[in-house]
Design goal:
alpha+beta, Glucose Permease (Domain IIA), Immunoglobulin-like, eight-stranded antiparallel β-sheet, globular
């Protein structure tokens, strides 16, 4: 039996519908106001480089953070440019002489100084006694900056006596904190940058909310936008290349003994040298010396048996009778991987009449 609504019933129904709409509108407004009153999600700091250098020319990334919890090693690009348990990113200088000349460590983000250390000697560790002497002070000289929402950055291995800031001091991004050194557990001059959130280590090359995608610098990483291209993942690099007039050592490179060396017609031998970082097992180094008349010597070294954090090679030839002819001389260094040239650098010098 179908009931026909009276005018009174219709009026009641209309009033009910209006009331329902008003209740819905009330809860919508209440919900929106509630959202605006909630605290904002903690945003990580936007990081600038912690070192005053030209990345890829006067400084390089030697090691990234180790993301593998086992005894194996894996950096954010799924490579091995790290070591077991490494908690940060190492920005290295080209030579020890660069460190002695002075290169500033700068604040990657604004914050407040939590603590400092400034008295550890600059020294390359060589013996068990050396390592025992810095136990508990592996960071060497450095400091911790506290940022908003539980974020921290830590700067390690600064030069003895160079730390310029004090505990409690307010710091702006780009402020000088000290200078790159060799203090603590280190084998080369660099600044180590660690990032933490609520005490947990964070890799600044990753988006904290996404999983690792090998070889890519993911959108949402912690570095500033203008650094993205320069920070693209390329761990294998040639950092030193030059000419010498005889056998050369790593100390010669670190002391810049042949930094501006130009051979002459009377130079007893013509030598090219190269130092590279983060080579894989199977990689090869090739050095070629040439002039305007063609190749003088090429030396391709045997494939590496294991990965090498640093690799140094040189090749050369004694001067011919009558000395070297005048003209342009070229040293070319190449890193070969799977029979293909991965990295190539060229340096030219002129021998005058």
């Amino acid at each position: 039996m179908v009931r026909i609504l009276s005018l009174v019933d219709c009026e009641k129904l209309n009033r009910f519908q209006v009331q329902v709409k008003e209740v819905i509108m009330f809860f919508r407004i209440f919900f929106c106001l509630s959202l605006t009153s909630l605290p904002a999600m903690a945003e990580p700091p936007v990081l600038q480089l912690p070192i005053d250098c030209e990345l890829g020319k006067t400084c390089f990334i030697q090691q990234y953070m180790d993301l593998d919890d086992s005894k194996n090693v894996r950096d954010f690009g799924c490579g091995t440019a790290s070591y077991d348990g490494h908690k940060g990113t190492d920005f290295r200088l080209l030579t020890i002489q660069d460190m002695e000349d002075g290169v500033n460590v700068i604040a990657s983000a604004s914050g407040r100084v939590q603590g400092t250390r400034n008295t550890v000697v600059d020294k390359i560790l060589k013996t068990p006694e050396d390592r025992a002497a810095i136990k508990g002070k592996e960071c060497g000289n450095g400091l911790v900056l506290k940022h908003a929402d539980g974020w921290e950055t830590q700067y390690c291995h600064l030069k003895q006596g160079s730390v310029t800031v004090k505990k409690g001091q307010s710091i702006e991004v780009g402020d000088v904190l000290g200078q790159v050194g060799l203090s603590g557990q280190t084998q080369f001059p660099h600044v180590h940058l660690s990032v933490r959130h609520n005490g947990k280590k964070v890799d600044p090359f990753l988006n904290p909310n996404k999983t690792v995608q090998c070889g890519e610098l993911p959108i949402g990483n912690l570095w500033a936008e203008d650094l993205q291209e320069r920070l693209a993942y390329q761990p294998t690099q040639i950092i030193n290349l030059g000419f010498a007039d005889g056998p050369i050592t790593v100390n010669d490179i670190d002391n810049k003994t042949f930094q501006n060396f130009t051979p002459s017609r009377k130079t007893a031998a013509l030598v090219g040298y190269v130092r590279a970082i983060n080579l894989n097992a199977g990689d090869q180094v090739r050095i070629t010396l040439s002039n305007e008349k063609g190749e003088i010597i090429t030396n391709t070294y045997d494939p590496l048996e294991r990965r090498k954090a640093v690799q140094f090679n040189f090749a050369g030839k004694k001067a011919p009778r009558g000395g070297w002819i005048a003209g342009e001389y070229i040293v070319t260094a190449e890193i070969l991987r799977n029979d293909h040239v991965l990295i190539k650098r060229v340096l030219k010098r002129k021998i005058l009449e």
